[in-house]
Design goal:
CATH topology of the largest domain in chain A: L-amino peptidase D-ALA esterase/amidase
Largest interface: A-B, 74 and 74 residues
Largest sheet of chain A: 7 strands, mixed
Number of strands of chain A: 17
CATH superfamily of the largest domain in chain A: L-amino peptidase D-ALA esterase/amidase
Number of domains of chain A: 2
Oligomer: homodimer
Strand order of the largest sheet of chain A: 10-17-12-16-13-14-15
Amino acid sequence: MLSFTEEQDYLDYLDRQARVPRGFRFYRRSITFNAAERPGDEAYRMNLSYLHSDAVETPAAVMTTTNRFPGAPVILARERIAAGHLRGVLVNNKVANVGAETGLADARRLADCTAHTFAVPERQILSVSTGVIGWRLPVNEMESAIPRLPDSPCSPREFSQAIMTTDRYPKLAWSGGPGEPGPVMLGAAKGAGMVEPNLATMLVFFLTDAVVPPVLLDRVQRRVVNRSFNALSVDGDQSTSDMVVAMAGGASGVELNERDLETLWQPVADALALEIVRNGEGTSHVIEVIIRGCPDASLARKLGRHVVDSPLVKTAISGNDPNVGRILGALGDGLSRFDPEGRIDTSRLTIALAERVVYRDGSFVLNQESERILAGTFQAAAMDPVLKGYPQDRGTVPIIFDFRGEARESVRVLGSDLSHEYIRVNADYRT
Amino acid sequence: MLSFTEEQDYLDYLDRQARVPRGFRFYRRSITFNAAERPGDEAYRMNLSYLHSDAVETPAAVMTTTNRFPGAPVILARERIAAGHLRGVLVNNKVANVGAETGLADARRLADCTAHTFAVPERQILSVSTGVIGWRLPVNEMESAIPRLPDSPCSPREFSQAIMTTDRYPKLAWSGGPGEPGPVMLGAAKGAGMVEPNLATMLVFFLTDAVVPPVLLDRVQRRVVNRSFNALSVDGDQSTSDMVVAMAGGASGVELNERDLETLWQPVADALALEIVRNGEGTSHVIEVIIRGCPDASLARKLGRHVVDSPLVKTAISGNDPNVGRILGALGDGLSRFDPEGRIDTSRLTIALAERVVYRDGSFVLNQESERILAGTFQAAAMDPVLKGYPQDRGTVPIIFDFRGEARESVRVLGSDLSHEYIRVNADYRT
């Protein structure tokens, strides 16, 4: 990611540089509505966005939250992806469509209305929502606006802005081209720490003009997402509405094998995952836990998440404090939870912060001088806590656990620190 | 707990009212030392405390942290409790004796020195530490002070003060007597949210003059601790040094059966657990999650901890916001982690806040008026965030999940909210 100092520079950069796979179109409109749940309030504003594939047969794959109280859009998506093809996705922000009595019927109505507008089969359209939990969608206002979507085409950058809630900047990433003849992968994501009631939702859309059958698309997406979005944690919880959707329109005419698809896809997912962590309100450091030599990659991922979720680790890093005791304590607590039988050998564990070894052979190897140097390193990785409308790339605070056992790959988990600003936006928004 | 407005009133209350089992003695001294790890700093102050049983055969039971990187005192305690009897426990604050190269040898030296001073077998003395992780104990200074402990007897209240680290007030609880002829149970605890590096440690000491064999003491302690200290969460992690020690001197001559012992013990443990949550720095609300009708009590406890550990729930409650969406989201995420096969039926779930039903039959049943009332209830449960040297009893914020299934008992989990003050004390202590 380049470095920016002005929001407009960043938007221009996205407009100029983003590679867009052929055969996809983007639309957006805004509406205003009065929430039945807030009778006295002013009207609210909602963005309606729509993502469309020209190809009559567009292989698609969806991954949804595993939260046991999924929102209506998640239930609809699970139903409609069964056949492995999609033509479009309607997205609204402001209201999440979770826990409202008519939620599923509403989602269906909106998707069907969109299908009629764009003359595609109803079963190939999703209606995806993000925003306040518990409110009913303003279905009438939305149904009035949908038929006018075709008059409002937009750029991918405008689409990625329209789906934002508390995000500080739009997030687009891409690979393939320019100058390369092969297919392109474009990803657009929304997600950040929560502010207004329950805006945790992470939505990610991947579009490619490669030729990929649905089964392969699904399989590679699971791997790519596990290494990126499933390896980050901002607020600890998976939301009721998280969703990742991939569509492969095939307009490039180039068929990709599994390995080449993964090579095209992974960096796009990794870049978006990093930006989701980085653009969270109240985030001043991105924490990067790397676990090496752990024979069980799934366990390694759980340990990494446990450490980046520890409020004691998060607050220490927020204060630029290389507090190895808290880090060791969090790892030890995670091991007792996720490896209760003690299968993982901890006797050879080393811990390094920013590549400096701080724990080895069961003892700390930190002194005042190295602590001072580490504190300076952490300070250099600190972003302005009042985030900007563009990425501030200050790198990460790397915590490296090396169990020195046999492992096929190292595991990386991203998280954010816990600052005053986080509490302010999450606790005080009503007061 | 009574209500106090002055620290001295509270201390007087403890001195006057606490019931003390016969056959135990308390001692304390302070020392100063220079930390090898902080060459330039001023001298630090450390309290040395000692708890002694007169009975030559004193049944005892110990529960220790399951953290995979236990401190030296934990390793020593596991070794020495094997025989089921203890005569005394030496406790120091300020340095935790975790991750120092000579840690175990140091703990042994101190325990043995104490054993010689009080003329009891070495194997029946523990050395317990709480404080900074990574520093070496000032063993020489401590060994000079231990032989003078017999000259410094103190009251149980003074003992409970001496073992404090970041605790805001000493914590004692008791049951049995006065006016009742039966035995007495006294508990003393230290523990609070962390402030200085790694002071998470929770230490609890239970003393009774009941006649109880070691095996029974151990069995009942496990049950009592599971329902109290294992059902609370302040910082999420178990520390490297958590320990609960029980000693049954038998001076009352009254033998207790399992049920009567539990009846005597449980309220003492519950009271101390509540105070550990309540006296955490940065705590403004005590959150009480109650899970009813969940057929699996162990799962219920995990779900309760997951909800009270959710930063989104914690910050909402800190802001007096009855944010049911976040609560439902955290429960749903917990279920997906701890009940991945979906064994628990969620279709009949109700959620109540402060006894007011807010979610039922898959939908929220909250309106603006009931939200306003709930916000007022939360406000009334808020303590002065700058905690005092005595308990402020404002009750709790109760979150009740009722799965309406068959369950032998309901499960209760306590946690604390996440306030600005928490971040300040946990992130900013160096700056």
